[in-house]
Amino acid sequence: MEAAAELAQRLRAAANERLAGQEPLLLVAAPLLALLAARAVHAAAADVADRGLRTVLITLAMAAVKLVPGVSGYIAAEKSKVVEKLQSGSASSKKDLRTELPAVGIPDGVIGDLQALKDKDVRWQGKCSGTVYIAGSESEGHFSLINKAYSMFSHTNPLHQDVFKSVAQLEAEVVAMTAALLGSKEKASGGQICGNMTSGGTESILLAVKTSRDYMQSKKGITKPEMIIAESAHSAYDKAAQYFNIKVRRVPVNKEFLADVKGFKRCINGNTIMMVGSAPGFPHGLIDPIEELGELASQYGICLHVDLCLGGFVLPFARKLGYPIPPFDFSVKGVTSISTDVHKYGLAPKGTSTVLYRNHEIRKHQFVAVTEWTGGLYISPTMAGSRPGGLVAGAWAAMMSLGLNGYLESTGKIMEVSKKIQKGIDDISGLFVIGKPDMTVVAFGSDAVDIFEVNDIMSSKGWHLNALQRPNSLHICVTLQHTAIYEEFLKDLEDSVDTVKANPGPISGGMAPIYGAAGKMPDRGTVKELLVEFMDSSC
């Protein structure tokens, strides 16, 4: 002990002698500067770890290039040209917008004006990927039924449960019926599945992420939350991350274009609050390995959200019809929440979705309760306060009118047509189907032609498909609208491929050059700026 004390004293004396000649200000500033430098190095290392060295270097290089006189202005001008191209004529219609109330109301002309505007919409019947999921005309059959249900309850608001008790009951029944399709009756679910209706898949996802964040904070004390998603997961998770200050760890998909479970496991750390699995994923219609992700979630005590926004009203019925559907719902151990849209294959009016939780302990973290407001005590279950009761009634009417037999019938039709489309695409020389579609989304690319040029030709024939990236591809989300004209789709697709083969290169007014350039552009920040400029000028 004495030797150690003596050594410490000698070291202290040597340090004081060495520093005696230094400026006092320098002695104070040096540790602070060292601390700042260390923090900068740590931040840079973290940035490289998150985005990769290549991305960071490209970002820095672009920032430096923009400092060169004239370059920033040139880039801005080129971005304006691209935005104008993306708008494709929408700017002209924006100039005709009304900006003031009419001096005198026009009650007799309102409906006529609405019809005139509606008549200018694109013809969507049968030629849109997804978009409209109900078959037939909007003035008859199932359309007419849900429209009538909506009009009966268009004045109601679930916020006022004491007044509109009917709507509260309708919402509870929609949630319970949806939960029953997704495993709530199975013993493995725990028997406490609960949830709420929302305005759509994005709100359902936002709520599930927010709830998982707050639940894990209360359970583990996590204050710097992270979530793990596959690069095929819906962009709504990025939106949730921005809204709720959550770090995203994005994992590349495997060779089958599915979530890479080993990659997920490598990303789990003490700040991980949740993982996301899709059933199916929007881009390629493939079901992630939910069981394996559930095992990971259980092992590490974190949340697992399953995105069933597309599959919730197809997969349960496809399984009953004998299609090989892997496990995806609350019967899987580790699944803590599920989002599923009623306004897609549930054939309900637009603006209806559900978010479900394994138990009430988790769901309680979804609610916002305010006790100090002068307006009184306040609590709200979802992001919106006031909500349209008409949509709740429309969803209830859709589910009750169709029943199990109706959904089995519609699922049988769209699954059969999806398989025919998949086979038809496989038979077209130069095209290939991406992965092995589990459901009603069929994605396809090409090793012979520019697939975006094919898309431009298809657009000229009235088709509206989804353009994808990594790899460059297209997809069609098959609905009841397609069951009568899928052969026309395949014929037009084959003709479009042949046209591009015979005359490669962009067509006048086509979007292929922009899509192609955006996919190859290494500076993703510039692509992001383009999207923001486009949106700002479009709404």
Brief sketch in words of this structure:
The chain is of the alpha/beta class. 50% of the residues lie in helices and 11% in strands. The termini are far apart.
Q: How would you describe this protein?
A:
The chain has helices spanning 2-19, 24-51, 53-66, 71-87, 90-95, 110-118, 141-152, 165-181, 201-220, 236-244, 261-267, 290-300, 315-320, 360-363, 389-426, 451-460, 486-502, 512-520, 524-538, and strands at residues 194-198, 226-230, 247-251, 272-278, 303-307, 337-341, 353-357, 368-370, 378-380, 431-433, 441-446, 466-468, 473-477. With 539 residues, the chain is α/β, with parallel strands linked by helices. Strands 1-7-6-5-4-2-3 form a seven-stranded mixed β-sheet, with helices on both faces. A four-stranded antiparallel β-sheet has the order 10-11-13-12. A hairpin with a 4-residue loop joins β12 (466-468) and β13. The longest helix is centred in the last third of the chain and has 38 residues, at 389-426. The mean pLDDT is 90.
The largest sheet is:
7 strands, mixed
DSSP summary: helix tally: 19
N-to-C terminal Cα separation, in Å? Answer: 75 Å
| Parts with pLDDT < 50 across at least 5 consecutive residues | none
Determine the strand fraction and express it as a percent band: 5-15%
Average pLDDT confidence is 90
Computed CA radius of gyration, to the nearest angstrom: 28 Å
Give the helix level as a range of percent: 40-55%
Structural class: alpha/beta
Shape: globular
For the secondary structure, the number of strands is: 13
Strand order of the largest sheet: 1-7-6-5-4-2-3
Modified residues (N6-(pyridoxal phosphate)lysine): 344
Protein name: Sphingosine-1-phosphate lyase
Pathway: Lipid metabolism; sphingolipid metabolism; Sphingolipid metabolism
Cofactor: pyridoxal 5'-phosphate
